[in-house]
Amino acid sequence: MISLILTASSDADALARLLSALVPGAAEGLVREVAVLGAQGVCGDIADEAGADLYSADAFADALARARGPWLLGLPVTAVFEPQWIAALGFHLAREPARPARLVASGLGLPGFGLTGRPEGWLVPKSLAPSAAARPCEQDLQRLARRGGQRLRVLRRA
């Protein structure tokens, strides 16, 4: 159901933790695929071994166009899920009408994200993504999620 789009960093441990945390969501049928942008070296190897689709750092629009899930999810590579994340996202996806949402951390948020008011993650129906821009970028989908008004507390501080 969800196509996850990640922008890699040089933090191989964080990428490995996040990709591992997605396994239960994939087993439940919630996470359909993962696209990792800009992964190089060890991070590229980790993403490839996890079965992620690899893209160059500037290929967000291409990853978006190839996403097969009806929902798009973007997270920072340092994101850590709350234990109930699968149920919370599943509940949101089942609601009608489909609405974008910000994925936020319980409490103060992730260092460098929650304290600045910047969304930690975004969840957008793919059907709404083209309306963000002719060649949408991640910031377009973040803005769309902010305007959606929904906040899902599915992340926690690392």
Describe the 3D structure:
Helix content is 33%, strand content 25%. The protein is of the alpha/beta class. The protein has a single domain (2-156), classed as Alpha-Beta Complex (Spore Coat Polysaccharide Biosynthesis Protein SpsA, Chain A), CATH 3.90.550.10. It has an 8-stranded mixed β-sheet with strand order 3-2-1-4-7-6-8-5, sandwiched between helices. Helix 3 links the parallel strand 2 (31-37) and strand 3. Helix 1 (12-21) packs parallel to helix 3. The radius of gyration is 14 Å and the shape is globular. It starts with a strand and ends with a strand. Residues 109-119 have low confidence and may be disordered.
Short description, anyone?
With 158 residues, this protein is α/β, with parallel strands linked by helices.
List descriptors.
eight-stranded mixed sheet; 6 helices; single chain; Spore Coat Polysaccharide Biosynthesis Protein SpsA, Chain A; 25% strand
